[in-house]
Design brief:
Elements (H helix, E strand, L loop, with lengths): L1 H17 L4 E7 L8 H5 L7 E3 L14 E7 L3 H14 L5 E5 L4 H11 L1 E4 L2 E4 L8 H8 L2 H8 L4 E5 L5 E5 L15 E2 L2 H15 L1 H7 L5 H17 L6 H20 L1
Parallel strand pairs: 5-9
Antiparallel strand pairs: 1-3, 1-4, 2-3, 4-7, 5-6, 7-8
Length: 262
């Protein structure tokens, strides 16, 4: 595992050098962690700029559990040591997201905070795009082209470790001639988009079943199977036991694959 972490850091440093940037932005989701990063973060000298996505929101009091955006200087060994430690300690969990962005930190913070909020049917909620299990599917099947561009235009690259601990790089569309604005507006979802967003978490819960049914597949491939099954259940307005539904569908699919291999 350590080799993957070192490779990830080497790759991001190479991309930053190619873009003439001396920093990388790191988003860490503290939710579900027993220990807050903030005491250690605030003790680092020189100080690392950071921002909580819960700032000035009803969740502001939940700071120890908030997603935190940090700008890491690659020219300072204290900062690099912190980056390496975070990746080593949390790289195996779906808690980290990197982005290489030339955008000023104060502009980036407000824009990303807006993107972490969603609105649907007159209700508001949290859009956990910084979860590496969520962002790829947001790009693939949930967001429309304009919404997707709101994310991509912020960065030269987004990066994460996937379910198989493989390094993923999503090229952004940032251009030096684009107008930089603090757009702290939420992502407004349609009924269909909101349903697909919910299907991501439902599919994640089925991965254990898929792994048993398709032992030859990777975790990412198993998730794709789960996601398709959950979408199918939604289209059929199925409201029964989703686990039982998935078992039946996977049994049919696994049998079909076995027939093809014979």
């Amino acid at each position: 595992m350590q080799e993957i972490y070192e490779q990830w850091i080497d790759q991001l440093e190479g991309l930053c050098r190619a873009a003439d940037l001396d920093h990388v932005d790191l988003i860490v989701d503290q939710a579900g962690s027993d220990i807050s990063l903030l005491p250690a973060l605030e003790a680092i000298e020189p100080a690392i700029p950071w921002f909580s996505f819960f700032s000035a929101t009803p969740e502001e009091t939940l700071l120890p559990h908030a997603p935190i955006l940090m700008r890491i200087s690659l020219n300072d060994w204290h900062h690099k040591a912190w980056l390496e430690e975070i990746i080593e300690q949390m790289g195996h969990m779906p808690r980290l997201m990197l982005l290489i962005s030339p955008i000023p930190f104060d502009v980036l913070t407000k824009t990303l905070q807006g993107l972490s909020q969603l609105e649907w049917g007159g209700q508001s909620g949290l859009l956990r795009f910084y979860d590496p299990r969520v962002l790829p599917q947001l790009f693939a099947s949930v967001l429309d082209s304009e919404q997707k561009q709101r994310f991509l235009s912020l960065a030269l690259f987004w990066s994460w470790l996937d379910r198989d601990q493989r390094i993923a790089w999503q090229p952004g569309t940032y251009g030096s001639d684009q107008v930089l604005e603090e757009v702290n507006t939420p992502v407004v979802l349609t009924d269909t988009q909101f349903d697909r967003l919910g299907c991501i978490s439902d599919a994640q819960k089925l991965i254990g079943i898929a792994v048993k049914a398709f032992s030859q597949l990777s975790s990412e491939e198993c998730f794709v199977r789960c996601y398709h099954v959950v979408l199918q259940a939604s289209c059929e307005n199925y409201f029964g036991d989703l686990n039982a539904y998935a078992v039946d569908k996977f049994a049919v699919l696994s049998g079909a694959i076995g027939d093809e291999q014979e």
